Amino acid sequence: MLLVAEHLTKTYAHRRGWSTPPGRDRGRDVRPALADASLSLERGESIGIVGESGSGKSTLARCLALLDRPDAGRVLLDGVELTRLGAGSLRRSRRRIQVVFQDPYSSLNPRLTVGSALSEVLLVHRLVPRHRIGRRVAELLDQVGMPARAADRYPSDFSGGQRQRICVARALAAEPEVLIADEPVSALDVSIQAQILNLLADLRTQLALSVIFISHDLYVVRYIAPKIGVMFGGRIVEVLPEGVPLEQARHPYTQALLNSRSRLDPGWLAESRDLATDLTSSLPATGCPFRERCPRVFAPCRDVDPPAVDIGHGHLVACHYVTNSYGGSARA
Amino acid sequence: MFPISCAGSVRPNATLRVEQLTVVFRGAGRPVVRGVSFEIAPGETFGLVGESGSGKSLTCRAILRLLPRGAKAGGRVTYGGRALLELTNAEMQALRGSTIAMIFQDPMTALNPVLRVGDAIAQVIASHEGVGARASRKRAIDMMARVGIRDAPRRAASYPHEFSGGMRQRIHIAMALAARPTLLLADEPTTALDVIVQAEILRLLDDLRREHGMSLLLVSHDFRVVAGLCDRLGVMYGGELVEMGPARTVLHHPQHPYTIGLMNSLPEAVAGRGRLQAIPGSPPDPEHAPPGCVFAPRCALAVSACTEAPVPVVETSPGHSSRCLRIDRLGELRPALVGADRSGA
């Protein structure tokens, strides 16, 4: 396994401020942003992570890249436990996991030319001899479909889509084995999104990269990664392996996502069911995080957070209703 | 249905007519919205689709005369026979909220953070309809309950920040509809929301439109959002309306290369493993758009005639029009999705 994450948990401390209402200043949120998340990737294997805002998908990305240290759990890269490394050795390992963020406007230094932003990475990680840096920068730009002359210009000279290409080039400069892309097209114009998705899909195959692709759109995710993890309330509630169609999703939340998804079909809104969700702004502190919105809720959901159970061929579902109806396999 | 009490208001069965609308920024050369014309019949839902910079939001704001500083609208906008661009500021202010209301992408910009939401909604009712405090407060609570806020009498005393994004948008809708407008302009009302909440808000808007017999202008960058509830839709690109027609016809038989390109670039358009059909290049800066067809630089079908002179609007079937010289060659582009939902759900 190239990348293994085991039981990652992260709780962000609530900072006490002047507006903190009394009773809410216990210092910690009730529910962790990320709870007991596990996943593993073979070399070259990709996974898509889907979930709504607040589901923990960005926290998962930050913990995998060690941008945030998880409170509990381990991240292993090629058998090396990153979560136990000190600052120096972690810095050397960081090169191997690179991140592309959602907003290409805030993730490039406006005062660095594109060329210096890329060569900085090459210098810091000592990836090519100094005299070859110019040539390598041109190669990287070419790889993401940008002309070599872009190196002399500043981020402000480029559109959102072009900037996102530059961010991808900067990530590739480090020669990573894992590329984490956190909503990389959400901030882009609709007509540009497909260009960036195609670029990521091509690079994934050409460079045999493991891509962790995060998005709120199931179909966008599946275009990049055949294997999908669905997150809700800080948990990975379902893993759909390659070959299992989205329509065979079993977790009630994944089904709700599919049901509510807008489509290029004049009838989609009429066909989707009203799920009467969003009635509460906070998630329940105990039991299944989805239980207050779930049409399938029954007694055990209130007290026990359902464990992820393999219902066949690596299709994992964390739901009492589903695992109950599978009888025997629930104990597997 | 309900009394229209505001002086100088418009009958509920009014039609919105936008004719040759232009929006130009002071000091800028070319208008950023050019020659936009459409109509919204009473009770109809019209969708305006376009990416950022296409002029869709400016078109929407020009109707309510809420353009940013330095922008000026030209052309003609009438609602129920009243020419909106010619009204005095006071007359326009009387129409805003009571007859034509607007909701925005970010409800926080529309909700006063230091006002309890119940009071904010009641204020709208009191100021437009001159009813007393007690009556307007009661109607505010009814309205909150109608938009799906549980325990409305208690929640009326909460502040905007105490609600989730979806709930805030519901309150924003309650506020916009409190004075019973006959036309609602919704500018990206669900863009900041999660998938499931988005469907709920759209369903709510559709239900309320039907109940109130209201017309709805829905502006979005997402074709799929407008597909779900619009009777007719218009596609904007680079400041111009490039295609307009009944929603079903536009979705099943698009008549403009940009519309086809947008549909084909969606992941659900590649049924199996094929590559996404991306539109090459990037959207134009509308101020510096080329003469002739704005989409020509990115269009696979463009010929020299496309960029030489402004392209006229052609009616391709009754009520369906396109601003394209190459309509007869559209078959050369890979056929669009033809509305069939292969993705299923």
Question: Which fold name corresponds to the CATH topology of the domain at 3-10 and 30-96 and 176-331 in chain A?
Answer: Rossmann fold
Largest sheet of chain A: 8 strands, mixed
Quantity of strands of chain B, as a count: 12
The coarse silhouette of chain A is: globular
Provide the helix percentage of chain A: 25-40%
- Strand-residue fraction of chain B? 15-25%
Oligomer: heterodimer
Low-confidence stretches of chain A: 24-29, 328-332
Shape of chain B: globular
Task: Tell me briefly what this model is.
The complex is a heterodimer of chains A (332) and B (345). With 332 residues, chain A is α/β, with parallel strands linked by helices.
Can you walk me through this structure?
- By secondary structure, chain A is of the alpha/beta class.
- Chain A has a domain of 231 residues: P-loop containing nucleotide triphosphate hydrolases (Rossmann fold).
- Chain A is built from 11 helices and 12 strands.
- In chain A, α3 packs across α4, α3 runs parallel beside α5 and α4 crosses α5.
- The longest helix of chain A is centred in the middle third of the chain and has 17 residues.
- Chain A is globular.
- The relative contact order of chain A is 0.13.
- In chain B, α7 runs parallel beside α8.
- In chain B, 31% of the residues lie in helices and 20% in strands.
- The N terminus and C terminus of chain B are likely disordered.
- With 345 residues, chain B is α/β, with parallel strands linked by helices.
- Classes of the chains: A alpha/beta (332), B alpha/beta (345).
- Chains A and B meet through α6, α7, α8 and α9 of A and α7, α8, α9, α10 and α11 of B.
